[in-house]
Write a structure and sequence with these properties.
Blueprint (H helix, E strand, L loop, with lengths): L12 H8 L3 H6 L10 H10 L5 E5 L1 H5 L6 H8 L6 H9 L4 H12 L6 H11 L10 H16 L6 E5 L5 H6 L8 E5 L3 H9 L3 E5 L19 H19 L3 E5 L6 H12 L6 E5 L10 H11 L1 H7 L2 E4 L3 H16 L17 H15 L11 H15 L5 H9 L14 E8 L11 E7 L14 E2 L7 H8 L3 E4 L11 E10 L6 E2 L2 E2 L2 E11 L20 H18 L1
Parallel strand pairs: 1-2, 1-5, 2-4, 3-4, 5-6, 6-7
Antiparallel strand pairs: 8-9, 8-15, 9-10, 11-12, 12-15, 13-14
Helix pairs in contact: 3-16, 5-7, 5-8, 9-16, 12-13, 18-21, 19-21
Length: 572
C-alpha cells in the first residue's frame, strides 16, 4: 500500500468515518492501494498491527469461489436438477424469489418427505464439481498467511477468530500450509462454546456458522443453515455468536455481500450499544447486471454503502479487482511481520516495503531485464527477438506446457503438434508501470510472445485495462486473481488463436526475505502468463475440433497451470 496521510478527524468517530470514505471519482482515477487516496487502508493496517487486540475475520462465499467452488446462487441453481419433475424444474429455474425462500422451495420440491440428514447430501451433490481437486485459491491462502503472521509476531498467542458462512473447508486447507494438520479444528454452530474456549486458548480453529458439508459425509457438522426456515430457527444463535465476536476486536469481512441478516443484525446491535468501532469490509463493486457500465456500477456501490457507514459503522474498502483484494491481505501480513520497514521512510536507511514502492521496483527490474528502456512498454527489435526465444524455450522445456499436454494426450483424443495437431504459443503480460502523474494506470502490457517477434510497438497491446468482463483473457485472470480458460474469437492481428488459458504472475520476496514456515510473506501480483491454442477450450456451438485442454479434469488443469508458472520463472 502506498504512503500518504489520512484526513484529520474533527472529533467524533462518525466525523472521521465521513471524511475517510473513498469517493467515486477517486475510485475511478486514483490508486486504490493507497493510504492517501483510500485512508481506511491505513486505519486497517494499524488496527491489524495492534497485536494486543483480537482480530476477527468473517469469511464469505467469495473466498470459496476463488478456490473453484460455487456461489450461493449457483449452489441453489445446481440443486434444481435434483427435482424429479421437469415442469417443476422449469418453474424453479425461472423463480425470482429471495435466495433463502428459493432454497426452501427447491428443497421442498426435491422431496418433502426426505429426512433432515438428506439435506447435506443434496447440498453436497450441488456444491462440489465431480472432478474438483482440493485446491486452495489465493484469497484463502492470504487469510491463512495473515493468521500465521500474527501468531509468529506474538509468539503463538495472537488471538484470531475465524468465522465463515461457507459449507466447505477451504480455509482449513489453507491453514494446513502454515500449521500442523492436527492443530486445526473445525466447529459448527452447536459447538460455539467449545470454539470460544479454543480461541481463548490460542488454538487454530474455524467456526462454520451455517454448518459444514464436506465432500465426505463423516465430516459434516449440523445444523445446516441454507433456507428461510433454517435462518429463522438458528438465526438468534448465529447473531449472538457474531455479536460476541465483534466486541473488543478488529473485524474484517472478506468475500461477503453483507446482506446476510445474521451478520447485519449483530453489526447494528453493537452499533446501538456503542461497541465494535473497528470494522472493515473488502469489496470489489459488482454491476447489478451485465449491461451496466463498470464505472457507474462503482458509483452505485459506493453511494449505496453509505448506509453501512452511517448505521453500522462499517468502513468499506473498495478495490478494482480481486487481485487487489488479495493484495490487501498480503500487505497486512507483511506489515505485521516487518513493522519497522512497512513505512514510507524506515529508519536506518532500510528500503521501504510499502506496496507502491515494492511494485515499482519489481516492475522496473522486470522491464529492464527484458530489454526495455526506462519508459518503454515492451522490448523491440533484438530484445524482442531474444524474449521470443526465451518464451519458445520455456514453452517446449521438459517440464513446460507442451510436455505436460503431451503427457495427457495419450489419455485423451487430442494431438499436440504435427500437421493436423493443435498448436500453442505463450504470451507474457506485465502490469503497466505506475505513472508519476495523472490518472491511475491499472492495466497490462503485452511484453512478448513465442509466436512472433514484433517489429515495433505500433500494433502492440499496451495499456489493456484490468477490469471485469475484459475481452483480454490475461486481464480477466488478473481481475479475478485466479486461473481462467476462455475462447478467443479470431482477430485480424491474431487469426489463428481460438482458445486461451491464463494465470496471474505472483512474484515473491521482492523486498523482504521473511518467511512463514517455508513460504515467503512478501508477494506481489505483477502480470499474467497465457497459453494460446489454435482450438477452442470451452464448449462451443461450432463444428470446429476442441482443444485437448477442454478434456482435462481439474487435477490435470492444475498441472498445466503449474507448468505455466514454471515457464514464467524461466523467462523472468
Amino acid at each position: 500500500m502506498s504512503t500518504g496521510s489520512t484526513e484529520k478527524s474533527n472529533g467524533s468517530d462518525f466525523a472521521r468515518v465521513e471524511l475517510s470514505m473513498v469517493t467515486h471519482r477517486d475510485f475511478v482515477e486514483k490508486r486504490m492501494l493507497s493510504f492517501r487516496h483510500q485512508p481506511y487502508l491505513r486505519d486497517l493496517r494499524i488496527r491489524v498491527g495492534n497485536l494486543r487486540k483480537p482480530l476477527t475475520i468473517v469469511i464469505g462465499a467469495g473466498v470459496s469461489m476463488n478456490s473453484g467452488l460455487r456461489s450461493w446462487p449457483a449452489l441453489i441453481e445446481n440443486m434444481i436438477p435434483q427435482i424429479g419433475d421437469k415442469g417443476l424444474q422449469a418453474m424453479a429455474e425461472h423463480d425470482k424469489s429471495d435466495l433463502m425462500r428459493k432454497a426452501e422451495i427447491v428443497l421442498t420440491l426435491i422431496n418433502p418427505a426426505k429426512p433432515k440428514a438428506e439435506l447435506s447430501n443434496i447440498i453436497r451433490r450441488a456444491l462440489y464439481p465431480d472432478d474438483l481437486e482440493n485446491g486452495v485459491g489465493q484469497l484463502a491462502l492470504s487469510i491463512a498467511r495473515l493468521v500465521a503472521a500474527r501468531r509468529k509476531a506474538t509468539g503463538g498467542k495472537g488471538e484470531v477468530r475465524l468465522i465463515t458462512t461457507n459449507f466447505d473447508k477451504v480455509v482449513e486447507l489453507a491453514l494446513q500450509r502454515y500449521f500442523p494438520h492436527e492443530k486445526i479444528r473445525s466447529y459448527g454452530l452447536n459447538d460455539a462454546k467449545e470454539w470460544r474456549k479454543a480461541v481463548k486458548a490460542d488454538k487454530i480453529c474455524v467456526l462454520h456458522m451455517h454448518g459444514i458439508v464436506e465432500r465426505e459425509p463423516k465430516e459434516d457438522k449440523l445444523p445446516i443453515v441454507l433456507t428461510e426456515s433454517q435462518f429463522l430457527r438458528h438465526g438468534a444463535d448465529a447473531r449472538e455468536l457474531v455479536y460476541r465476536s465483534l466486541k473488543k476486536s478488529c473485524t474484517l469481512f472478506v468475500g461477503l455481500s453483507m446482506t446476510d441478516p445474521n451478520l447485519v443484525g449483530p453489526l447494528y446491535q453493537s452499533t446501538i450499544k456503542g461497541k465494535g468501532r473497528a470494522r472493515f469490509a473488502l469489496v470489489v463493486p459488482e454491476p447489478p447486471s451485465e449491461k451496466d457500465d463498470a464505472a457507474e456500477a462503482a458509483h452505485y456501490a459506493i453511494e449505496s454503502s453509505r448506509f453501512m457507514k452511517r448505521k453500522l459503522r462499517l468502513r468499506t474498502i473498495f478495490l478494482k479487482s480481486y487481485s487487489q483484494l488479495n493484495q490487501v491481505l498480503a500487505e497486512l501480513s507483511l506489515a505485521v511481520v516487518e513493522p519497522k520497514r512497512y513505512k514510507g521512510r524506515p529508519k536506518g536507511g532500510a528500503r521501504s516495503l510499502v506496496y507502491d514502492r515494492r511494485l515499482k521496483r519489481k516492475l522496473d527490474s522486470c522491464y529492464r531485464d527484458l530489454g526495455c528502456g526506462r519508459r518503454a512498454a515492451m522490448p523491440v527489435r533484438n530484445e524482442a527477438a531474444r524474449l521470443n526465444k526465451r518464451l519458445h524455450r520455456a514453452l517446449h522445456a521438459p517440464d513446460g506446457p507442451i510436455a505436460v499436454l503431451r503427457g495427457f494426450a495419450c489419455a485423451h483424443t487430442g494431438t499436440v503438434g504435427g500437421p493436423d495437431g493443435e498448436r500453442f504459443a505463450l504470451f507474457l503480460w506485465l502490469r503497466a508501470r505506475p505513472r508519476s502523474h495523472g490518472r491511475a494506470h491499472y492495466a497490462l502490457n503485452l511484453i512478448g510472445t513465442s509466436a512472433y517477434v514484433p517489429r515495433d510497438d505500433s500494433a502492440a497491446q499496451i495499456g489493456v485495462p484490468i477490469c471485469r468482463g475484459s475481452a483480454v483473457t490475461a486481464a480477466q485472470a488478473v481481475f479475478l486473481g485466479s486461473p481462467i480458460a476462455a475462447n478467443s474469437h479470431p482477430t485480424p492481428g491474431a487469426p489463428a488463436w481460438r482458445g486461451i488459458v491464463a494465470t496471474p504472475i505472483v512474484a515473491e520476496s521482492t523486498g523482504s526475505a521473511k518467511r512463514l514456515r517455508k513460504y515467503p510473506v512478501d508477494q506481489l501480483t505483477i502480470g499474467a502468463i497465457s497459453l494460446h491454442t489454435t482450438r477452442f477450450v470451452r464448449d462451443t456451438e461450432t463444428n470446429q475440433p476442441s482443444s485437448i485442454i477442454s478434456e482435462l479434469d481439474s487435477h490435470q488443469l492444475n498441472k498445466l497451470f503449474k507448468s505455466l508458472e514454471r515457464a514464467v520463472r524461466k523467462v523472468l
